[in-house]
Design goal:
mainly alpha, 3-stranded antiparallel β-sheet, two-stranded antiparallel sheet, 25 helices, 8% strand, DUF1585, Cellulose-binding domain protein
């Protein structure tokens, strides 16, 4: 049905009014800087007011309105280090239009058949949809405002269309789009704020009705209460959302989507691209749900089976069983050797030891090298006939300015040279046998490895790797960088990670900590 000019004007006005409040709400949200000593009994994560990411908005709306799919939300996210975290940029006119278009599209496809009765319709809008979108019960003034909008719209365009007006307004409200986290007198997040933070971390979406009911009953008041809900949420299929958000950003899998930079991947078709992106997240989630630790994450040769990747794995597959692909342990070991990860860290139809080495330094050791000095050319010389990628890169080593970073970065990356630009295993580059030895510093000592399998084995035993992954998860979960104030929490999470059930315990330790459960410094 064509939308009337009055309807469009009302919705735009509601959007402008709602978004106009954001600046006032956001002022001073970060609060004072936390003290430097780590005391999780008094210090909370100093999280500024965050705007939900596009993925979080899309998942929540699909879930609440029971939509099979949604059009992408055309609003960009900020990135803080590896992770999307909307904590500083204001909403401009183009972004507001993106939210408006998304709200209209979502509301137009929502099932509003129950709105033939005004009472039933308002009950659904305010006590179900509003509760789940706003992640808390609506206040009396909000109920009155949305009730009045529904009554006015119903008079002009009918009851079902009036319900869509209310949905559009709710989907553009800062209460939905932003996390306005309330705290109790003891400095802990109130139960609804904690439910929201927990769900957005573990599911990448808003809380379900069960979690909201627990929050309404005061059932998230202790670490034990939070752990019980977190256990349930990790075992729920919806944890695929939050865990995939983490892995996707941590391992830079978004690089696969660039059709301009990677036309080679695009040419393989959407099924292959989807499988390349999905397998690392599924591998990680299986490790979390199955209660496996750091060694399994970095060295396991079993992975979820995706049909579209069968030809990429080729002879590396030893066995297929119950949705699991068992791989040759001489060729594949852990998440870093999955085709999607290696393809994401390549250039179009050529490998990149530099990108691969940088990814290990930044994402697994938390020691990324800085940018090259000003005036230094980073362009490789033209390839000599028959020269390998390794031989071209080693030319950097003769230049001390370049070699200072590239010896370690490329030294790690060379260990992955037996995987081509698509992550396929290989023995040769052209007619030359591949040299995948690498020498680099790890854990304060110089190490030489013979390929990716040996590298993964070293990393699985390294305390610095465990601590870095714990830091990565903590930054993802709160959208802020870790500081010295979180050192004891990260240390404890790293110890959990190195245990047999490590990944799951690492996540549970973080979401049940006082640091996660507080809204900043106790007041």
């Amino acid at each position: 049905m064509p939308r009337s000019r009055r309807s469009r004007a009302l919705v735009v006005a509601a959007c402008a009014l709602a978004l106009g409040c954001v600046g006032e709400l956001d002022a001073g949200a970060a609060g004072p800087a936390p003290p430097q000593a780590c005391d999780p009994g008094t210090i909370g994560a100093p999280v500024p007011m965050r705007r939900l990411t596009a993925e979080q908005v899309e998942r929540t709306v699909r879930d609440v309105l029971e939509l099979p799919a949604s059009e992408p939300l055309a609003v960009p996210d900020e990135r803080l280090f590896h992770y999307r975290s909307n904590i500083s940029s204001a909403i401009d006119v183009a972004m507001a239009r993106g939210y408006l278009d998304f709200a209209e599209s979502s509301a137009s496809r929502a099932d509003v058949s129950r709105c033939s009765s005004s009472d039933a319709c308002l009950g659904w809008l305010l006590d179900d949809v509003g509760l789940r979108l706003f992640r808390r019960p609506l206040r009396d003034d909000e109920r009155a405002r949305y009730g009045a909008l529904y009554a006015d719209a119903s008079t002009h365009v009918g009851a079902t269309e009036g319900a869509r007006w209310v949905l559009e307004a709710m989907l553009q409200s800062p209460t939905f789009l932003y996390l306005d986290e309330g705290t109790d007198e003891d400095g802990l997040l109130d139960d609804h704020a904690l439910a929201s933070r927990l769900a957005l971390t573990l599911w990448g979406a808003g809380p379900d009705r069960e979690l909201l009911d627990v929050a309404a009953a005061g059932g998230l008041s202790s670490a034990e209460d939070v752990r019980a809900q977190a256990e349930r949420m990790l075992d729920d299929p919806r944890s695929e959302g939050g865990l995939s958000d983490f892995v996707d950003q941590w391992l830079e899998l978004h690089r696969l989507d660039s059709t301009s930079a990677r036309p080679d991947i695009a040419a393989l078709g959407p099924d292959v691209l989807a499988a390349l992106r999905s397998e690392p997240s599924a591998f990680f989630r299986d490790a979390v749900v199955g209660g496996r630790g750091l060694r399994a994450l970095l060295t396991s040769s079993e992975t979820p089976s995706f049909d579209a990747l069968a030809s990429i794995y080729g002879d590396d597959v030893v066995e297929e069983r119950d949705g699991t692909r068992v791989l040759d342990p001489e060729w594949r070991a852990g998440i870093l050797t999955l085709p999607g990860v290696q393809a994401a860290l390549s250039h179009a139809e050529s490998t990149s030891p530099t990108l691969r080495g940088y990814a290990v330094l930044a994402g697994f050791l938390c020691t990324p090298p800085g940018p090259p000095p000003a005036g230094v050319s980073v362009t490789l010389p033209p390839p000599m006939p028959g020269a390998t990628t390794r031989e071209r890169l080693e030319l950097h080593f003769s230049n001390e300015t370049c070699g200072a970073c590239h010896r370690t970065m490329d030294g790690i990356g060379f260990a992955f040279e037996r995987y081509d630009w698509l992550g396929r295993s290989r023995d040769h580059e052209g007619d030359r046998e591949i040299d995948d030895t690498g020498t680099f510093a790890l854990g304060g000592r110089e190490i030489t490895v013979d390929g990716a399998i040996e590298l993964a084995d070293h990393m699985a035993d390294d305390a610095a790797v465990a601590q870095c992954i714990a830091r990565q998860w903590t930054q993802y979960a709160t959208g802020i960088p870790t500081t010295s104030a979180t050192s004891c929490l990260v240390d404890g999470m790293a110890r959990d990670l190195r245990g047999d059930t490590g990944l799951r315990e690492m996540i549970l330790a973080q979401v049940t900590s006082d640091w996660f459960r507080r809204g900043g410094e106790a007041r």
